[in-house]
Amino acid sequence: MTQLPTHTEKKLGLVIDLDTCVGCHACVISCKGWNTENYGAPLSDQNPYGADPSGTFLNRVHSYEVTPDEGAAMTVHFPKSCLHCEDAPCVTVCPTGASYKRVEDGIVLVNESDCIGCGLCAWACPYGARELDQAEGVMKKCTLCVDRIYNENLPEIDREPACVRTCPAGARHFGDLGDETSDVSKLVAERGGMDLMPELGTKPVNKYLPPRPKDDQIDILAPFLETVAEEPTGFLGWLDKTLERIG
Amino acid sequence: MHPAPSIIFFTVFSGLGFGLLTFLGFGKPDYSGFTAFIFFLIAYVFAVGGLISSAFHLGNPQRALKAFSQWRSSWLSREGCLAVAALTVMGIYAIGVVFLNTSWTILGLLGAALSLATVFGTSMIYTQITTVPRWSHWTTPVLFILYSLTGGAFLAGQTSIAAPMLLVLGVFQCVYWIIGDKLFSASGSTIETATGLGNMGKVRMFEAPHSSKNYLMKEMVHVVGRKHARTLRIIGVLCLSLLPYLLLVLPPFYHLISLLALLLHIGGALILRWLFFAEAEHTVGLYYGQR
C-alpha cells in the first residue's frame, strides 16, 4: 500500500554526527558490501574498470566547504542516505504499491517484485536517496539493514546497520527516534540535531548533528612554551653564516 | 530533469489523442461511418501509442499492470485508470457513431470528460513532484490541458476553435515560463537548507561523492540541455503557436496548408515538451552544487 501509515510504533533511524565524520567513505563501502549480497537485487556497477564508471549505492559521502562571515573556512563531510521520512513523498507517488513505510518500525522499503522501475519515487525524493539499478531495473534504497537489525543469526553487536557498525569515527548512531528516552533521541536533544530541507515538509526521521564551533585561536599557553632554537649552532651555524657571507 | 524521448512522446501524443477524443465526444466533427472511423483511429493511435511509449522507460515493463492498483494515493496510477476508462467509454461511443450511425450523447460527454481528466492526470504526475518547483504549480495542469485541447481541436478539423486557441496556448506558454523561472528561488531550498549548514556560513561543494555521473545526476541534474533554452523557447513558440495560426488564418483554406500547420504545431509541442523536462530543476542538484 502506498498510503502512508498515520502512526508508526517505532521511528528507527540514523543520527549522523557531522562534527565527527572524517569523510573516509567506509560506510559507503560497507553498505554496498552488505546490501549487494543480501536483501533484494545486487547493487550493480556499470563499466566499473572503464573510463566512466558508475554504479548503485545506497549511501554517498559529499564534502562541503563552509565559509563563515568571519574566520577560517571549514570542511564538512556529509554522508547521505535515505532519511526514512515520516511524510515520505516517495511512497505515495508509487503506482504499484512497491514502496511502503512499515507500521512496526517506520522503515521505508521497496518490494522489488512489485517495482516497475518507473523512477517516479526517485523524482519525488528531495534528497537523492533512491537510485534505479541499471542492471535490474528496480529501485534501490537504504533498508536500514532490515536484514541485520533483527537477524538473530548475527552476534548481537552486529545487529545494527552496516554503515553504523563499520564507522571508525563513531559518527553514525542507530536507534528509535520515536522514543524520547533512547540514546539517539538524547543525542539529538543535546547536540541540536537538525532536519535536511525542513521547508519541504517531509519530516525526516534521520537527524544530523551540526559541527561544533571551532576554536578561533591557538592554545593560550602556546606563547609560554619553550621555543625551538632560532639560531642554528655547530655545523649548521657555520653553514648558515658562510652562506650568508657568500650570498 | 532528463528529457527522456519516450516520456516526451508519451505526454505529447497521448495529450493530442485524448484532446481529439474530447472533441469527438462532443460530436465535433459530426461525421459517421468511415470518416468517423478515421478520426477515431487517429485518436486511438495517438492516445494508445503515447501510453505504450511511456512503458519504454520502465525498468520492468512486464509488471506494468500493477500500476493500476494504487489510485488512492498515486497520480501515475490514477492517470492509468482514467486512460483505460476514457478509452473504453469512447470505444463504445465510437461503435455507435461508426457502425450504427447514432451518437449516444450522454456517453460521448462522459467520454469527453474522462479524456480531459486523463490529461489532467498526466499533468498531475508532474505537478505533485514538489522537489521540482517549476512543475509543482497550478499552471502545469492548465498548460497540459491547453496543449491537449488546442491539438485536439486542430486534429478534429475545428479550425474556428483551433486558431484562437493556438494564440491562447502560445501566450500561456510564455506566462508559464515567466512564473516558472522564479519558482525554484521562491521555494526557499538552497544548498544551505539541503545540508543544514546555513547558520555556520556559506556552503560550497568541495568534493563530489563520486568521480563520474551517477543515476541521480543523469536523471535529475540535467544541466547540459539548458544551454540553448532561450533559442529553443523562441523556435518552439513560433512552431507551436504563431506560424500555425498564421497558416490557418491568412491564406485561403487548403487541406495541405492545414496539414503543414498541424505538423509545425506538433513539432513545436515536441520541442517545448523537451524543454519542459530539460529546464526543470530538482532539489537533489543542490547537493551537487548545481541546479
UniProtKB/TrEMBL annotation, chain A:
GO molecular-function terms, A-Z: 4 iron, 4 sulfur cluster binding; metal ion binding
Keyword Ligase tagged: no
InterPro entries, per database record: 4Fe4S_Fe-S-bd, 4Fe4S_Fe_S_CS, ET_IronSulfur_Cluster-Binding
Pfam families (alphabetical): Fer4_11, Fer4_4
Protein's UniProt keywords contain DNA repair: no
Domain 4Fe-4S ferredoxin-type: 12-42, 72-105, 106-135
Alphabetical UniProt keywords: 4Fe-4S, Iron, Iron-sulfur, Metal-binding
Protein name as it appears in the record: Fe-S-cluster-containing dehydrogenase component
Automatic annotation (TrEMBL), chain B:
Sequence intervals crossing the membrane: 7-27, 33-59, 80-100, 106-126, 138-155, 161-179, 232-250, 256-276
Keyword line: Membrane, Transmembrane, Transmembrane helix
GO cellular component: dimethyl sulfoxide reductase complex; plasma membrane
One BP annotation, GO: anaerobic electron transport chain
One MF annotation (Gene Ontology) recorded for this entry: dimethyl sulfoxide reductase activity
A Pfam family the protein falls into: DmsC
The organism's place on the tree of life at top rank: Bacteria
Protein name stated in the entry: DMSO reductase anchor subunit
